[in-house]
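In response to reviewer comment 3 from the previous cycle, which asked for concrete evidence that the modeling workflow produces usable outputs, we include below a single protein chain processed end to end. The sequence was submitted unchanged, and the resulting structure tokens are shown without manual editing.
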Amino acid sequence: MNRIAGSVLAAVAIAALALGAWVGLNIRGQDNPWLAPARDLAEGNGWEAGRIDAGLFQLTAFRRLEGDEDGLLVVYIEGDGYAWKSPTELSSDPTPRRPRVLELAVQDPEGNVAYLARPCQYLPDNEIGRCPPVLWSVSRYAGEVIDALDIAIDSLKREAGAARVRLVGVSGGGTLAALVAARRDDVVGLVTVAANLDHGVWTDRHAITPLIDSRNAADVALMIQDIPQVHFIGAQDGNVTRAEVDAYVARMDDAAMTQVVVVPEYDHTCCWASEWPRLLDAYPVGN
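The workflow returned the following structure tokens.
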């Protein structure tokens, strides 16, 4: 990471509770307008909302911990969110405008399931102002972001009493899921949806600024090739294509544990939620 980005990231620490602590979140009292739809979806499905202190960041999270006789925790990781207003203008708030990843998570049939937002998402105005935009541009997959997710997963795992973790990441959350998996020895399954698993290929194809301060999932593909994996791609997706996933798989020397599934008629956002339980059932990993 370059010196400028590193110093900016170091400045975003938010005074918080004990590291890894979960605190219930009264979303109704917050002023981020995109929190309410996510809260309604979560609470309507029997989930609770909170924040987890994860070092430099407090991550907004939703969870349903009902116990699992197999000791499994499933964690869904949010994508890049509303990172850009236009092809040339960054958003001032990367919170997703529709909780599409949470729509998948609440349909997961496992007993212990959680959702993690990315740093700076779902924050009120007085906190989002302390978040540097590099966190949803060139540093979106920086080491500090991976650290925060890793801490939060440890916290959720302790509270669930789980021994094993399955990671599910959507879009840029899939990139981070692979990078987090490379840090851990308890990940028994990795699922991604429309994930730019080689962001060098992705930025080249779109002719956009390279993510110079971000880690690349392709660099850890060999390290995690023994983890059962399923990578879903929409056949109509013009944002992330099979080329990014194939470049990731090509870095393995044994891809026997990895499946790439192209879903006809789907694109980057449509229509994963409508068929999610069926897809999970058809392509199980880490059971």
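Residues 10-17 have pLDDT under 50 and may be disordered. We consider this sufficient to address the reviewer's concern, and the full set will be provided in the supplementary archive.
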